[in-house]
C-alpha cells in the first residue's frame, strides 16, 4: 500500500467509529459522545469494498491516538517491537501513544469480564473464551471494521479470512460474525520428552513411561487440576462436553462411554499416585522443566524453548501416550484450539485498535512470532514454510491433532473440573472406593452443569 495515500472519507469514519464502536454510544457506555460525530452513513461497515472511495492524500493534521494492548508476559519484548513497527508504519496518519500491559491469553476472559470498559483496547485470548466474551458484549465485530481495514491496511476481512487456516477462522467466528483476528493454530498440548532417558517406545504408554522415568530417577509432569488438561483422559475414552443454548455445559463424565467415568478416574489415580509422576500447577510447567527433574512433560508449543534448553540433544516431542482404564489401553486425547486477538467493544479508538490487532497478527508478525517463540501460525503461508514443517513441537502437535477435541464449554466448567483434578493430584480419592469416586464425579458434573449466573 502507498503510505502517502489514504481515503479521507474513511479516515473520518474510523475516527467516528472510535466513538461508535458498539453502534449507539449510549449502548457502548459513552453517553457523552456527541451524536453529530457518529453519522451512521459514514461508518466503515456501510462502505462496501466494491464501492470504497479512491484513496486521497494524507490530511495535513494528524490524529492523536491512545491505545492499550495486553499480551502474555513472555511476549512483552516481541510485542513491543511489533508495536513500535506499527507506530512507524502509520506515522503519517497519527501520533500514537500505545501502552503495553501483561495479561495471559489463558486468563484474559476473566480479567476482561471483571470490568469490560476498563480492559485494554486490544488483547489476545484462547478460542474457548470467544462465546463468553461475545455474549458479554466485550468484542467489537471485525466485520464492521472492513472499510477501515481496506483504507489503512489495504486488505479486507475476506482477505484476512483467506490468509488463515479454516479452523482458526471458524474459531474466531460466532453467529457468522468475525470477532477476532486469528493469531495462532497451536493452542493444544502433547508430550515433550528427553530421548536420552526415554525411548520412542517408552513414551507410547503412561505405564512404560513412568516405569522408565522412575528407574532413571526422573519424573513426568502434567497439570491435572485443570479441566483443559484433565479432560484429555475423558475425551480419549469417548466422553463429551458441549455448550447448551442457555450457556450451560452439557457433560457426561459421570456416566459410561467406552468405559465408565469411574474407570477413567481410576486410570488417572494410577498415574497420579506413581512416584515418578509430578502434578504441576497450571502455568508452572516451564519452571519444572527448567528445574531438571523432569524427563517428560505434557504441555504445548509455548514451552518448547524451555524443553529444548533442558533436554538438549535429547529434545523430542510426540503425541500423548495411552493410559489404562477398565482393562483397556486408551489413547489420551487433547484439547485443540487457537489463539486470537480482539478489539474491545468499548474502545474509544476502535478503528485504530482493529488496525493494531490486524498488524500483530499479519503474515510478517506471525512469522516473527514463530521465529521468536515457536508459536504455531494460523497464517497459511507461514504454516507452509519449511521452518515450520521442520519444527519438533509443531510436528508433535500435528500428530496429536488426529486425537484432538475442540472443547466447547460454558463458564461453570472450569472451577468444578479443577477441583476434581486437584482431588486426584492430592490423592484425596481412594482408588478402590467406587462409591466415593462416583460421588466426586456426580458433584463435578452437577457444578459444571449449573445455570450460569
Task: Explain the layout of strands and helices.
Elements: E1 5-6, H1 8-19, E2 56-57, E3 63-71, H2 76-89, E4 94-102, H3 108-114, E5 122-126, H4 130-135, H5 146-153, H6 157-163, H7 166-171, E6 173-174, E7 177-178, E8 181-184, E9 190-194, H8 206-215, E10 219-222, H9 227-236, E11 241-243, E12 249-251, H10 261-272, E13 277-279, H11 285-290, E14 294-299, H12 304-311, E15 315-318, E16 322-325, E17 328-331, E18 334-335, E19 339-343, H13 350-360, H14 363-373, H15 380-383, H16 386-389, H17 392-400, E20 404-405, H18 414-425, H19 434-449
Parallel strand pairs: 3-4, 3-5, 10-13, 10-14, 18-20
Antiparallel strand pairs: 1-2, 5-19, 6-7, 8-19, 9-14, 9-15, 11-12, 16-17
Helix pairs in contact: 1-5, 5-13, 9-18, 10-19, 18-19
How would you characterize the overall build of this protein?
Mean pLDDT is 87; it is low at 1-57. α18 (414-425) packs antiparallel against α19 (434-449). The chain is an alpha/beta fold and 453 residues long. The termini are far apart. 38% of the residues lie in helices and 18% in strands. The strands form seven sheets. It has a five-stranded mixed sheet with strand order 4-3-5-19-8. Strands 13-10-14-9-15 form a five-stranded mixed sheet, with helices on both faces. Strands 1-2 form a two-stranded antiparallel sheet.
Amino acid at each position: 500500500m502507498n503510505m502517502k495515500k489514504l481515503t479521507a472519507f474513511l479516515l473520518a469514519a474510523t475516527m467516528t467509529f472510535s466513538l461508535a464502536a458498539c453502534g449507539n454510544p449510549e449502548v457502548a457506555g459513552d453517553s457523552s459522545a456527541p451524536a453529530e460525530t457518529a453519522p451512521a452513513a459514514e461508518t466503515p461497515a456501510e462502505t462496501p469494498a466494491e464501492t470504497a472511495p479512491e484513496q486521497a492524500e494524507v490530511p495535513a493534521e494528524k490524529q492523536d491516538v491512545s491505545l492499550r494492548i495486553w499480551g502474555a508476559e513472555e511476549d512483552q519484548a516481541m510485542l513491543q517491537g511489533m508495536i513500535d513497527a506499527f507506530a512507524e508504519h502509520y506515522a503519517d496518519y497519527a501520533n500514537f501513544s500505545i501502552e503495553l500491559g501483561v495479561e495471559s491469553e489463558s486468563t484474559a476472559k476473566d480479567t476482561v469480564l471483571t470490568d469490560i470498559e476498563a480492559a485494554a483496547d486490544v488483547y489476545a485470548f484462547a478460542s474457548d473464551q470467544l462465546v463468553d466474551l461475545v455474549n458479554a458484549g466485550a468484542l467489537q465485530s471485525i466485520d464492521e471494521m472492513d472499510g477501515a481495514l481496506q483504507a489503512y491496511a489495504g486488505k479486507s476481512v475476506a482477505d484476512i479470512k483467506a490468509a488463515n487456516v479454516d479452523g482458526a477462522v471458524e474459531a474466531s467466528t460466532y453467529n457468522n460474525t468475525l470477532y477476532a483476528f486469528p493469531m495462532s493454530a497451536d493452542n493444544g498440548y502433547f508430550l515433550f520428552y528427553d530421548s536420552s532417558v526415554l525411548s520412542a517406545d517408552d513414551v507410547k504408554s503412561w505405564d512404560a513411561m513412568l516405569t522408565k522415568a522412575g528407574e532413571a530417577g526422573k519424573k513426568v509432569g502434567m497439570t491435572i487440576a485443570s479441566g483443559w488438561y484433565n479432560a484429555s483422559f475423558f475425551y480419549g475414552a469417548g466422553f463429551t462436553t458441549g455448550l447448551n443454548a442457555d450457556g450451560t455445559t452439557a457433560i457426561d463424565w459421570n456416566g459410561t462411554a467406552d468405559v465408565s467415568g469411574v474407570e477413567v478416574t481410576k486410570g488417572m489415580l494410577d498415574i497420579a499416585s506413581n512416584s515418578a509422576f509430578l502434578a504441576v500447577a497450571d502455568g508452572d510447567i516451564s519452571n519444572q522443566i527448567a528445574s531438571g527433574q523432569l524427563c517428560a512433560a505434557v504441555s504445548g508449543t509455548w514451552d518448547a524453548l524451555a524443553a529444548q534448553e533442558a533436554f538438549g540433544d535429547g529434545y523430542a516431542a510426540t503425541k500423548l501416550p495411552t493410559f489404562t482404564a477398565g482393562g483397556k489401553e486408551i489413547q489420551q486425547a487433547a484439547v485443540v484450539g487457537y489463539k486470537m486477538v480482539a478489539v474491545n467493544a468499548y474502545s474509544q479508538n476502535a478503528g485504530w485498535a482493529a488496525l493494531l490487532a490486524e498488524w500483530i497478527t499479519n503474515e510478517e508478525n506471525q512469522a516473527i512470532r514463530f521465529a521468536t517463540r515457536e508459536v504455531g501460525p494460523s497464517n497459511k503461508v507461514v504454516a507452509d514454510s519449511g521452518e515450520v514443517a521442520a519444527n519438533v513441537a509443531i510436528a508433535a502437535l500435528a500428530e496429536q491433532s488426529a486425537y484432538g477435541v475442540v472443547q466447547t464449554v460454558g463458564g461453570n466448567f472450569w472451577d468444578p473440573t479443577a477441583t476434581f483434578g486437584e482431588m486426584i493430584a492430592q490423592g484425596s480419592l481412594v482408588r478402590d472406593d467406587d462409591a466415593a469416586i462416583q460421588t466426586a464425579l456426580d458433584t463435578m458434573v452437577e457444578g459444571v452443569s449449573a445455570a450460569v449466573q
